[in-house]
Amino acid sequence: MDHLLVDPVNPDPALVARAAGLILAGGVVAYPTDTLYGLAVDPRNAHAIERLFAIKDRAVDQPVPVIAADSGQVERGVGHLSDLARRLAVRFWPGPLTLIVQASPLISPLVHRGAGAVAVRVPDHAVARMLAAQCGGAITSTSANRSGEPAPDAADRIAQSIREQIDMLLDAGATPGGLPSTIVNVMGEGPVLVREGVVRWARVLECV
Fold first, then answer.
1. Which residue in 106, 172, 178 sits closest to 138, CA to CA?
2. Which residues contact 63 (CB under 8 A, 6 or more apart)?
3. Residue 111: helix, strand or coil by DSSP?
4. Given this model, what pLDDT does residue 63 score?
5. What is the pLDDT of residue 88?
6. Number of domains into which the chain is organized
7. N-term to C-term CA, the chain
């Protein structure tokens, strides 16, 4: 595994490009977000997604969230943003609000387990957004831990069992940690709370 140190505010594009190259080749990369460290694979690559599930020992019926560089990238390759979704995206992205939207056919069904809906957000972290941008599409953002174990908020807290199976670690120091992102389903006429996290539900309702 390659262990690369990157600046959390002004990451070196050349270093991030190396990670993006691995992801596009089917690799697995650990990287920082504005909440915790995540594991990135190409959500269009079924083999890479299967490898991700094996590394995490994750149940096959659990969907995988993704992140994107910006709203435009979401619209181009992740899923449709309704008027409601766009309002929330304008208010909370980049940031820890995950929206469940209709999945694009470009996304492998293994990501959403055939449900046709995908959870996506734009994180408030320069490394994460640059990585998604250089991959030319969204990347997965499931936490960098085995299922049932604590999610790491720093590179040095990623378990050895994970490190031994991934291809690269982008180490930008500690992340904020704490609560995960808030998840809201926006596929209907109104928002539906799936999980309350950093963004309080009352703040979401204020926007709609």
1. 106
2. 111, 112, 113, 115, 117, 118, 119
3. helix
4. 92
5. 97
6. 1
7. 45
Strand 168-171 to strand 2-5: parallel, antiparallel, or no bridges (unpaired)? parallel
- How far is the CA of 100 from the CAs of 139, 146, 181, in angstroms? 15, 23, 12
Angle CA(180)–CA(49)–CA(45) in degrees, nearest 5?
120
The pLDDT score that the predictor gives to residue 114 is 83
CATH of the domain at 101: 3.90.870.10
- Which residue shows structure tokens 């469940």? 100
pTM of the model: 0.95
Q: What residue numbers bound the domain in which 178 lies?
A: 2-206
Residues 6+ apart with CB under 8 A from 14: none
Average pLDDT, consecutive stretches of 10 residues, N- to C-terminus, the chain (208 residues): 96 98 98 96 97 92 94 95 96 97 95 93 98 96 93 96 97 92 94 95 90
Instruction: Give the tokens for residue 194.
Output: 């799936």
